[in-house]
């Protein structure tokens, strides 16, 4: 038979709580009865009663002896009870909203970074860092927040802004509709102090339309839209062969066509490498002779054409010419297979509307990356998902801009000032730069700030392979993880990176001598994988080098000051896209892609 337990203390606890509950009801109800009774007496022409809330509740006929029974019932009973119930309902609703939204903020998670843990990303430290990185700010008395770094959000449950500095490089992994555009891409573009590059596969209702007007006030806007995502008039052209006058430059250009056509796992086979080599040799010949890139398609159609061989020899690239000749004069079945592979990679150049963006155009200005990186201009690079050769041109242009920025930074003493922001949205679909993981190791130190936005970690692995994506992840000084992570392995990896924390466990036992309580500590994941998968929209995890993982409240542009003007501008730009699309497809209309 178990020993008897002493339950007297439990009875005292229950009685005390009941007493407090009665007080919580009686005190406000008595005051409401006195107040409501006096209001009723005043309205009915009777004398007001002195301050006696208890009597008003228990004996209202003594305080208002001349009032009728009906008046007392309504004024000192029904109205106070109704008011108290209504007040309780309001408090309940507000408490419920505060619980679900944290009063406008999310509930803090125990074990995540506190302000002191990520101090280098806070206002004071990030401002001091900006002064040391940017010579133009060293003597400034006041520095605007946008000049100090890219806003990532607020530390959850606080007003502390978290920013990545203008020497950081970032990877953002965020599922669709998780805030990657509204809370990261658009605010970053709007606040950028220098040139901005954006790649995207959307126009209407996206970063393009939301920032177009604002960035046109900062500098010139360039839009490269070979597949008519925004149905933009062709008001620029860019020469992809400008950087192809060396074997390395030509190889990089060919590599973009290769990466746009096949996944990383297929790029090492014989036909892929041979087709890429032929393209690089022909790109080199066309660049050396200052020909348009479309001439390469003519040479691919007729392998016997000796023009590229002669050009390479005339410019002392005899070894390259010998390699090209060996392929041309090799076994016909092998040669034809190699050339056909190359034709498929560069097939987009057969489309005259696409080729027009990368060949000289009369009365249309040429986009020059070397000039762009010293300006405050904006370059929008638009391409469809799976755009093949068209997305190769987008990747090549973005790569050319970043390399021009690197060269300019070296000329300027090591860094660009102001820095250049490169938002590579949908990078795995429209901007497959093969060695982007390698570039991450030094771009930040040059004042070139890339933010590569992916929908999942596996998407990056498909483009850059396991080793490449791991290298990019490791080289990124800031990682932002939004809601919608459905990869269990990746979610578990993030959970392990966030770590464990001590949780206090209380146990109670009963004995003949009474109740005893003991406290012990155990280790528990701060954020388990299932919680990472269920991250609510509007929040994101932030991993910064050498700091604890932080939970952020995102800051979408439409909740910031000036959102109404931006919304109106975005609506106008989207409406203009629709109008251009309708006009383009109207009967009797010609190519809308010509210069306006």
How does this model look, in words?
Among the domains are: 16-101, no CATH class; 240-352. The protein is α/β, with parallel strands linked by helices and 596 residues long. The chain has helices spanning 8-44, 53-58, 60-63, 69-101, 123-133, 180-191, 207-218, 247-261, 270-288, 295-301, 307-314, 318-328, 332-345, 352-355, 369-372, 389-411, 427-430, 436-439, 457-475, 488-498, 529-533, 563-584; strands at residues 149-155, 161-165, 170-173, 196-200, 221-224, 378-382, 420-425, 448-454, 478-481, 500-511, 514-525, 539-544, 550-553. 42% of the residues are buried. 48% of the residues lie in helices and 14% in strands. It has an eleven-stranded mixed beta sheet with strand order 2-1-13-12-9-3-8-7-4-6-5, sandwiched between helices. Strands 10-11 form a two-stranded antiparallel ribbon. Helix 1 (8-44) crosses helix 4 (69-101) and helix 8 runs antiparallel to helix 16. The chain crosses the membrane at residues 14-34, 74-96. InterPro entries: P-loop_NTPase, T4SS-coupling_protein, TraG-D_C. Its main location: membrane. Residues 419-537 form the TraD/TraG TraM recognition site domain.
Question: Layout of SSEs?
Answer:
Elements: H1 8-44, H2 53-58, H3 60-63, H4 69-101, H5 123-133, E1 149-155, E2 161-165, E3 170-173, H6 180-191, E4 196-200, H7 207-218, E5 221-224, H8 247-261, H9 270-288, H10 295-301, H11 307-314, H12 318-328, H13 332-345, H14 352-355, H15 369-372, E6 378-382, H16 389-411, E7 420-425, H17 427-430, H18 436-439, E8 448-454, H19 457-475, E9 478-481, H20 488-498, E10 500-511, E11 514-525, H21 529-533, E12 539-544, E13 550-553, H22 563-584
Parallel strand pairs: 3-8, 3-9, 4-6, 4-7, 5-6, 7-8
Antiparallel strand pairs: 1-2, 1-13, 9-12, 10-11, 12-13
Membrane topology: Multi-pass membrane protein
Subcellular location: Cell membrane
Pfam family, one: TraG-D_C
């Amino acid at each position: 038979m178990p020993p008897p337990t002493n339950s007297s203390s439990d009875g005292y606890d229950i009685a005390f709580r009941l007493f407090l509950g009665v007080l919580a009801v009686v005190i406000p109800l008595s005051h409401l009865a006195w107040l409501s009774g006096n209001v009723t007496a005043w309205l009915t022409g009777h004398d007001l009663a002195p301050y006696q809330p208890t009597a008003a509740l228990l004996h209202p006929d003594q305080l208002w002896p001349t009032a009728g029974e009906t008046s007392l019932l309504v004024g000192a009973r029904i109205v106070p009870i109704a008011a108290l119930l209504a007040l309780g309902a309001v408090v309940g609703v507000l408490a419920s909203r505060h619980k679900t939204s944290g009063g406008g903020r999310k509930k803090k998670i125990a074990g995540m970074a506190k302000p002191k843990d990520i101090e280098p990303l806070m206002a004071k430290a990030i401002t001091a860092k900006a002064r040391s990185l940017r010579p133009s700010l060293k003597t400034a008395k006041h520095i605007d927040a946008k000049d100090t770094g890219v806003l990532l959000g607020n530390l959850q449950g606080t007003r502390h802004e978290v920013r990545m500095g203008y020497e950081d490089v970032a990877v953002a992994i965020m599922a669709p509709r998780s805030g990657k555009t509204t809370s990261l891409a658009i605010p970053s573009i709007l606040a950028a102090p220098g040139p901005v590059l954006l790649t995207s596969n959307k126009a209407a209702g996206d970063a393009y339309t939301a920032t177009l007007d604002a960035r046109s006030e900062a500098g010139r806007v360039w839009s490269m839209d070979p597949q008519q995502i925004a149905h933009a008039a062709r008001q620029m052209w860019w020469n992809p062969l400008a950087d192809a006058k060396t074997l390395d430059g030509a190889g990089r250009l060919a590599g973009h066509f290769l990466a746009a056509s096949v996944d990383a796992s297929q790029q090492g086979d014989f036909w892929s490498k041979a087709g890429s080599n032929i393209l690089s040799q022909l790109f080199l010949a066309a660049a050396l002779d200052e020909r348009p890139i479309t001439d390469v398609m003519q040479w691919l159609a007729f392998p016997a054409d000796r023009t590229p061989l002669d050009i390479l020899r005339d410019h002392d690239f005899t070894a390259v010419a010998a390699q090209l000749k060996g392929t041309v004069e090799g076994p016909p079945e092998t040669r034809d297979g190699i050339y056909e592979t190359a034709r498929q990679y560069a097939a987009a150049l057969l489309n005259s509307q696409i080729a027009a963006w990368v060949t000289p155009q009369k009365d249309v200005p040429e986009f020059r990356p070397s000039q762009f990186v010293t300006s405050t201009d904006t370059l929008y690079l638009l391409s469809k998902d799976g755009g093949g050769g068209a997305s190769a041109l987008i990747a090549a242009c973005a790569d050319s801009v970043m390399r021009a920025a690197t060269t300019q930074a070296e000329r300027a003493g090591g860094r660009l000032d102001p820095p250049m922001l490169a938002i590579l949205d949908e990078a795995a679909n429209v901007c497959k730069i093969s060695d982007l993981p390698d570039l991450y190791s030094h771009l930040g130190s040059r004042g070139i700030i890339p933010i590569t936005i992916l929908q999942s970690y596996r998407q990056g692995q498909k483009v850059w392979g396991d080793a490449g994506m791991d290298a990019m992840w490791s080289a990124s000084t800031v990682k932002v993880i939004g809601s919608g992570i459905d990869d269990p392995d990746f979610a578990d990896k993030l959970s392990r990176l966030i770590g464990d924390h001590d949780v206090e466990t209380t146990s109670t036992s009963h004995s003949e001598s009474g109740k005893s309580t003991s406290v012990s500590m155990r280790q528990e994941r701060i954020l388990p994988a299932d919680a990472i998968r269920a991250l609510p929209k509007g929040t994101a995890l932030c991993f910064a080098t050498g700091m604890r993982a932080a939970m952020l409240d995102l800051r979408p542009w439409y909740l910031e000051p000036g959102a109404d003007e931006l919304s109106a501008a975005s609506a106008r730009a989207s409406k203009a896209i629709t109008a251009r699309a309708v006009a383009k497809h109207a009967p009797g209309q010609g190519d809308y892609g010509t210069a306006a």
